[in-house]
Amino acid sequence: QRSYKLVVVGGGTGGCSTAARFCHQLGKGKVAVIEPSETHYYQPLWTLVGGGIKTFKETVRSMKDVLPKECDWIKAKVTNFDPDNNTVVTSDGQKIKYDFMVVSMGMQLNFDQIPGALEALKNDPQVVSNYAPWTVEKTFPAIRNTRDGNAIFTFPNTPIKCAGAPQKIMYLAEEHFRKNGVRDKVTVLYNTALGVIFGVKKYAERLMKVVEKRHIKVNYRRNLIEVKSNKKEAVFENLDTGEKETFTYSMLHLTPPMSAPDELRQCKKLVNEAGYLEVNNDTLQSTRYPNIFSIGDCNSAPTSKTAAAVASQGGVVMKNLGALMNGKPMLKRYDGYTSCPLITSRGRCILAEFDYNGNPLETFPIDQGKERWSMYHLKADVLPFMYWNAMLTGHWNGPGFFRKAIRLGLSDGSIKKS
Ligand code: FAD
Ligand code: UQ1
User: Fold this and answer.
1) CATH number for the domain including 164?
2) Which residues are catalytic?
3) Structure ipTM
């Protein structure tokens, strides 16, 4: 039986950066990463892959190249957690023991919960999704082939990662229809299970202006329940009245329902009712097992699930878990920071940043609610570089530090408390 000071479950955004942070502190042989996938994806760029602006290749690195050299990579899935005995069981039958554990398993895509969706994604070139590596490259050809009819973009009736992504691709598609000279023949529909376009008022107001200006029809409280690709139909349920409504599509971009991974959900000792690893919202420590922490999409922290949130959470866990390992008090608090670069066209982006309370927490001393070229450039070119070079190596804890420094620099010498 192998044993480690720290076991990290998942080698995605949260897992890889956490392993790097603790390898710096603990050195060789102390940290294990349990991760089944050969490849690591930079998922935030998939919006631009779907929009025909970046290539899929730019979003892919091999896992062995991104995981820190000092860690042991156990190439398997965790199938069972036994937190009472500080042990996990892997798909290849190993029992791994830990002193401390960080869980970053991300979210599971549940395409199979929509009858006909998987079949349509496999067989109908006009049914696409930016959310999975095996379908994201279908999106741009489908946009190019759309000449008339309904182009439908969906948002499911579950929490999802990057809650802005289902509409970002719609804006890129709508722009493309205009460039192709087919915009007057295509109806662009955003069918969302939510009752608002975005959860934070400031940005929702700006996005409403965008959809109005561009004649995009938003249908609220519509949940996709079936895809009939033989008839080119998408069936939605009206979540208020229960009525079913069928739309024909010439293109359908679907965002699947999501959940915490099954292997995590099954461990009732660790998760909340919704199946996410229950953490203290401030410290990100498990509410039940003090030697367990969780970062990212699979934890219960009530904020919007993004890589930007993972960066901030990673800094908090590095401080708190580091303190715990050394018998010191945990002093760092997570404020719920998250960010969503809402791309509204090729070259324009509203950079939403906010906290647990849905209050804007903007980094730059300009109104980020405006559609800006600078924020687009940040999203498309600067952040990917930062991700590979600073975040995955454990050196990026989010922009909180810059935000505070910029505020201080601007405040005529008098130090304000925020
Ligand atoms: P992931 O990075 O998904 O990693 C989870 C890892 O856990 C995976 O490698 C998986 O193989 C592994 N795993 C799963 N099950 C097991 C198991 N049983 N045992 C061991 N390992 C397991 N974020 C932003 O900040 N900005 C954006 O603009 C943005 N845009 C996005 C656009 C799209 C289309 C998508 C899909 C995502 C976007 N995101 C964006 C969200 C961002 O990618 C995620 O929030 C982030 O990757 C979450 O990190 P994570 O470590 O929690 O999960
Ligand atoms: C961020 O830190 C981050 O993680 C690397 C993202 O994921 C790609 C983001 O999209 C954003 C916006 C941030 C926040 C960074 C800055 C500089 C505002």
Assistant:
1) 3.50.50.60
2) 162, 340
3) 0.99
